[in-house]
Amino acid sequence: MPVLIVNQEEVPGLLPMAECMEAMAQVLATLARGQALLPLRSILWLPEKVGGLGLMPAVLLPERVTGVKVITFFPGNEGTELDTHQGAVLLFEAERGRLLAVVDATSITAIRTAAVSGVATRALAREDAGDLAILGSGTQARTHLEAMRVARKIRRVRVASKDPEKARAFAERESAKHGIAVEPVASVREAVAGADIICTATSSREPILLGEWISLGAHVNAVGSSVPVARELDTAAVVRSSLYVDRRESALNEAGDFLIPKKEGAIGDHHIIGEIGEVLTGRIHGRTTAKEITLFKSLGLAVEDVASARIIYEKAKASGQGRFLEFGGSRHAND
């Protein structure tokens, strides 16, 4: 049976940011309606946790597709020629179980993570928000700049990184790409001063963003940490914020930005107002005042990967991009 193979370079052309944002809004609403099956991710850690293998399965019932993202996470790759996250998304149809596509997971993860933050920003940030601070200078910083420019009319961008040279390189590259001045700054505090949209996209395991630095009325997308023992925001930042998540069950089990303040006794489970999908479907409210600080804690969900792979599959099939290879799946004649 023919199976579509889509490599890392081909994914962005088949999954443009604006289109991905619309798809992520749809799939988060699908999840909120109970029309998806989504177990918690499973992580197999290598000895001494030098790296891990993550399995993220999901089923989208209305679309009749299922799939799994299989991805490795090796923090030591940071700064090398290899991405810290590598793997594939396998897409199956859910009627007879046929494998439809094998798609590079690195590009999907980069785009869909930022697209979900874009959806959250569109739902929670003030309408006039446009002063953007990006914390981090890697892949997610790049795609988050793109997503924020889709979500809001961005008038100012500052970037801070633990490596000032990387911040300068990011600013130069992205300024030329987007035709907007990106300012490299020396510290996180300088980056977020007066910002009304903040994206934390770092690999830090300790807080880099302090609550006292966040301006009233700001919206924060926290995307860098997806394990219970690491966080980018300090306790005060979470306590000050109205907290929304991609999925409540995932946050209660995996979100260090939430779980560490909870362990300290600063907040309880009720501090989570709800899921972004619930805001999109009108089940819960979003921002209520201009001075409110809203926080979206993103963990990344398999439904987002499966939905992205489905878009890529349909577009590739229609346009002739990618490669279809005979892969198997037929019953052997002598069975």
Q: What are the secondary-structure elements, in order, as H or E?
A: EHHEEEEEEHEHEHEHEEHEHHEHEHE
Contiguous low-pLDDT stretches (5 residues minimum) are none
The CATH superfamily of the largest domain appears as NAD(P)-binding Rossmann-like Domain
CATH class of the largest domain, named Alpha Beta
Named at the architecture level, the CATH assignment of the largest domain is 3-Layer(aba) Sandwich
Write down the domain tally.
2
- Biggest sheet character: 8 strands, mixed
Distance between the termini: 18 Å
Number of helices, counting only DSSP H or I runs of 4 residues or more: 11
The averaged pLDDT comes out at 95
Give the class from helix and strand content and strand pairing: alpha/beta
Cα shape: globular
Under CATH, the topology of the largest domain is which?
Rossmann fold
User: In angstroms, what is the radius of gyration?
Assistant: 20 Å
Query: Helix share of residues?
Result: 25-40%
Total number of strands: 16
Proportion of beta-strand residues: 15-25%
Question: Can you walk me through this structure?
Answer:
The protein is an alpha/beta fold and 335 residues long. It folds into two domains: 2-108 and 302-326, ornithine cyclodeaminase, domain 1; 126-297, NAD(P)-binding Rossmann-like Domain (Rossmann fold). The protein contains eleven helices and 16 strands. The strands form two sheets. Strands 1, 2, 3, 4, 5, 6, 7 and 16 form an eight-stranded mixed beta sheet that branches. Strands 10-9-8-11-12-15-13-14 form an eight-stranded parallel beta sheet. Helix 5 (164-178) links the parallel strand 9 and strand 10 (182-184). Helix 2 (17-32) crosses helix 11 (302-319), helix 3 runs parallel beside helix 4 (139-151) and helix 3 crosses helix 11. The model has no long low-confidence stretch (mean pLDDT 95).
